[in-house]
Amino acid sequence: MAEETFFRKIIDKEIPSDMLYQDDFVTAFRDISPQAPTHILIIPNKLIATANDIEIEDELLIGKLYSVAKILAKQEGIDESGYRLIMNCNQDGGQEVFHIHLHLLGGKPLGQLVAVG
Fold it and tell me: How would residue 1 be classed by pLDDT, with cut points 50, 70 and 90?
C-alpha cells in the first residue's frame, strides 16, 4: 500500500479537490491557495518525496508531468500568453508537501522568479 500523504488522499479521492486531470500515472488539481489566476498542482500518482528521490526509472513519469502541464495550460487558455512551471525541493526550496508536485502558474504577468544580474 502506498504511504498516506495529503496528496495520496486526493489521488484516491478521499479528500475532495477541484480535479482537472487524472490517469493511471498523474493527477492534477487546482491549488487551494492560488498564487496566480491559474495555479494547478500536477503530481505523480507514485509517491516520490522530493526531487532528490527521482530515480532513472522515473524519467518517463517526470516527463508525463510536463506533458500534462502543456495540456492544462492550453485548456486554461494560458499557453500562448505564457506560464511558469515550478518544482520545489526540500525546506529551503519551499517544498511544503513531501510528494513531488509541479506548480503550473499563469493568467497574469508573473515577473522575475529571482533577481539575476
Answer: very low
Q: Which residues of the chain form beta strands (DSSP E)?
A: 19-22, 26-30, 38-44, 83-86, 102-106
Q: What is the mean pLDDT of residues 74-93?
A: 96
Tell me the domain boundaries of the chain: 6-106
Write down the catalytic residue from 39, 99, 101, 103: 101
- Which class in CATH covers the domain with range 6-106? alpha beta
pTM above 0.90, yes or no: yes
Determine contact, residues 25/45, Cβ cutoff 8 Å.
yes
> Is 101 an active-site residue?
yes
